[in-house]
UniProtKB/TrEMBL annotation:
GO molecular function term, any single one: acyltransferase activity, transferring groups other than amino-acyl groups
SUPFAM superfamilies, A to Z: Acyl-CoA N-acyltransferases (Nat)
Alphabetic keyword roster: Transferase
Domain N-acetyltransferase: 8-151
UniProt entry tagged with the keyword Protein biosynthesis: no
Name of the protein in its database record: GNAT family N-acetyltransferase
TM region(s), chain numbering: none
Domain of life of the native organism: Bacteria
Amino acid sequence: MTEIRTPRLLLRGWHDDDLVPMADIHADLRVMRWIGDGSVRGLERTAEDIGRWEQEWDEEGFGLFAVELLASGELIGFAGLSVSEALPGVLPEVAVGWRIGSQFWGQGYASEAAHATLEFALQDRGLDRVVSVSRVGDSASENVIRKLGMVPEREMAHPVYGYPLRVHGIDLTEFQA
């Protein structure tokens, strides 16, 4: 599996010892507020999530990287590419996404990891276009999306929960790596 190093981060494959720290991130209401129905996830659900993320690597040749701080080796969340079966209104497009533990917010890690992911999409996977989907009102995610150079394209309702989502896109031939 591909590994990507940025000045402060290592984007890598998932290890067995990532389960507990990722479950801790999923147990934080502040992190999960904008995800799905906003409820937290336990160890079992997190293990299922990681298994699904690893399977996407096998099936698509891309997926969600575990994101680790280079300085400490600590897992801070994930970033990567996915095809969201849960959002049929976005299919078949590839989306860039991230989830970072709240204790690491405000330090530019999400932007750094997402930028590296877009470079990976363009240079390593040859994708022409990538989208990102945010829940309307999630200003922190929308700030990261703007830093990536992505522009709002349309809004749609979440197919299960009904709240508004905003789809942003970028033509990777115009992305400034």
